[in-house]
Amino acid sequence: MKKLKVKIHKRSKTKRIYEPVSNIYDTLDRIKSHGGKTLFSYFTTEHKLNDITYSEFYDTTISLAAGLDAVGLSGRRIAVIGETSPEWLCTYLAVMASGGVIVPMDRELAPEEITNFLKWINADAIVYSASLENSISKLHGGEYEPQLYISFTGNKNSEKEKNIPDIIRLGQENINNGYTLPTDNLQENELAEFLFTSGTTGSSKCVMLSQKNIFSVVTSACETVDFNPDDTVVSVLPMHHTYELACTLAEMVYGCHICINDSLSHVIKNFKLFRPTALVLVPLFLYTMHKKIWTEARNSGKENKLKIGIIAAGTMNAAGVDMRRRIFGEVLQAFGGRLEKIICGGAPLDPLMIEAFENFGISVYEGYGITECSPLVAVTPYYARKYGSVGRSVPCCEVRIDPNCKAVNTDYGYVDGEIQVKGTNVMIGYFDNIEGNADSFTEDGWYRTGDIGYIDDDGYIFITGRMKSVIVLENGKNVFPEEIEEYLGHIDQISECVVVGRSSDGNKIELTAVIFPNAEKFPEDCDEDTIKRTLEHSIASMNRKLPSFKRVMRIEIRSTEFEKTNTKKIKRHLVV
After folding, report:
1. CA 60 to CA 175: how far, in whole Å?
2. Mapping DSSP to helix (H, G, I), strand (E, B) and coil, where does residue 554 land?
3. What is the pLDDT of residue 506?
């Protein structure tokens, strides 16, 4: 079988300007070294634009770490939940710097889910933003309570409540009394972070990461991504997402200017305000941005002009004359006029979208990762891209295709099998999950990603499918169908169900419940349309209790039970 050859799009390599880091203290040193340069531009709770420098952020982080020690939380397990903010990042670093274990949590979790997770890992404290005060207040007096509630800026109503300014003041006193960071006790391979893979404790796994895991990925990102100290980045994705967090830490090591987007409804306005040179996004944003460009061109009668410009710019570029940024200046102004590059990950990306943005002079570099790998596994070399590939493995790890797989992908001519990873980015393991750990590693110690793909002769990784049941939405959110099935299981009109992702409306993935109804709950002569309407009504009530991205949008009725294994598990892979 002839092997598929994919064109390499080449450009000049640039010097990587950064200092490698291997732990929290290295990272804090890098942050301190950038001095009076602006680190974050962000909106306060009063919606005023504010800046904080690298040195100010460093001092605050050290004081917060000392403050945690002062209130007996040094070396403890501390959760953080809320929107992206300097306080969130400061908490993340300060907990680790004080020898503790940080636990980032999704701010869309329901109060009962927050409680379940805190109880599961026996968390000692939770730090939260003002927008979460109502949700956190419901934890008081509940099934599990941490020792201390710490709000970013909020009021205190009991002895168990404090806020970050309080902790910082105590930390400054502690420093004046001789406190220093516990650098002598550093164990880079010990537990430093808990990450929950999804939803409820019944379907979620708790990933354990060490400082070695976290910061080997940060250094690998600095080595492989074409960012530099002069870049301005707008942070759009949720910070608890490991992809966004790893990129943000790398940007801080670089010395970038990071501007925090305050709302998805303000993204375009904030692009124009902050004028980014680089972005970190999931595919949904690219699809939305691309659609907006062409919609505005049509509405303004400039669609043909834009098409002609693309042809002309392509012709000149092939001749060595790059006029794209001049020709498409009006298009680029929608993103502030300076945007040069986008790192895209979290979900599969249509290769045509890379070419579409390249036409306008914006380079898109695709990456691949998984939470269990901290999360970075591969990224497209900025100086040698292959559209459709997620690139080569990053320096901190090796990637292979399952050596026991003998199948050949007839479309591409390469061995197609499970993608497996080994390196300093691979997690310590799952917390409290012996079976999960055994299933996730090969006998010779490689992590089994559950993704299917092949590696070409140049070392580029191509992903062709997924073994795992996880559904990756177009916005990069991971939905574990078992979790949604758990909710559906409480509807007594449903006997059995499987949740799948169905494509609709272009690139949109809709959660679809394939249902075998419980016949006992319907009249004997009930027709399928009536059954479907009844189930839709019940599922609509269920959906109101779930975050929007976890809602079931369609249902399909089946007349027979699902095929099952000997242990009575539904053969999910047969549901098509």
Report:
1. 12
2. strand
3. 63
Segment 279-332, tens digit of pLDDT:
999 988 898 899 889 989 999 999 999 999 999 999 998 899 999 999 999 999
Q: Measure Cα distances from 297 to 294, 302, 306 in Å.
A: 5, 5, 7
Backbone angles phi, psi at 105, to 5 degrees: -130, 150
| 173 Cβ contact list (under 8 Å, min separation 6) | 70
Closest CA to 423 of 368, 375, 463: 375
C-alpha span between 550 and 470 (Å, rounded):
12
Helices (H), 275-350: 283-299, 303-318, 324-327, 329-333
**Locus of tokens 């503790």:** 100
Mean pLDDT in the chain?
92
Model confidence band, residue 486 (pLDDT cutoffs 50, 70, 90): confident
Asked whether the bond before 20 is cis by omega within 30 degrees of 0, the reply is no
pLDDT more than 90, % of the chain? 76
Q: Are strands 125-128 and 49-53 parallel, antiparallel or unpaired?
A: unpaired
Across the strands, what pairs with 511?
501
Give how far the C-alpha of residue 571 lies from the chain's centroid of Cα atoms, to the nearest Å. 29
SS3 content of the chain, % helix, strand, coil (to 5): 35, 25, 40
Task: State the amino acid at position 532 in one-letter form.
Answer: K
Q: Which residues of 20-45 are buried (b: 16+ CB within 10 A; e: fewer)?
A: bbbbbbbbbebbeebeeebbbbbbee
Strand 232-235 relative to strand 206-210: parallel, antiparallel, unpaired? unpaired
CB under 8 Å to 409, separation ≥6 — which residues?
415, 416, 454, 464
Determine whether 342 is exposed, middle or buried from the number of CB atoms within 10 Å of its CB (0-12, 13-18, 19+): buried
Give me the residues paired with residue 103 across strands.
79
Asked if residue 162 lies in contact with residue 150, where contact means CB atoms within 8 angstroms, the answer is yes
| Window from 230-239, 483-492, 567-576 with minimum mean pLDDT | 567-576
Enumerate residues 6+ apart whose C-beta is below 8 A from 21: 27, 30, 215, 218, 219, 253
Structure tokens at 193: 């972070």
* Angle subtended at Cα 27 by Cα 25 and Cα 28, rounded to the nearest 5 degrees: 65
pTM of structure: 0.87
Going 224 to 229 to 232 to 233, the CA torsion angle's sign is positive
Q: Mean of the pLDDT values across residues 211-219? A: 98
Our CA angle for 415, 417, 421, nearest 5°, is 115
Rounded percentage of the chain residues whose pLDDT exceeds 70: 96
Nearest C-alpha neighbor of 417 from the set 391, 392, 453 = 453
* Span 530-536, average pLDDT: 95
Residue 360 has what DSSP assignment? T
Q: Tell me which residue has tokens 């990456």.
A: 367
Question: Which residues 6+ apart lie within 8 Å of 92 measured at CB?
Answer: 80, 102, 104, 239, 245
What the block records as the tokens of 448 is 């089994």
Taking each helix axis from N to C terminus, what angle separates 351-359 and 283-299, rounded to the nearest 10 degrees? 50
Q: Are 313 and 253 in contact (CB under 8 A)?
A: no
Q: Angle, nearest 10°, between helix axes 54-70 and 24-33?
A: 140
How far is residue 60's CA from residue 68's CA, in Å, rounded to a whole number? 12
Give the Cα separation of 346 and 237 in Å (integer).
11
Distance CA 195, CA 199 (A): 12
Sign of CA dihedral 232, 95, 138, 48: negative
Residue with tokens 């927008």: 131
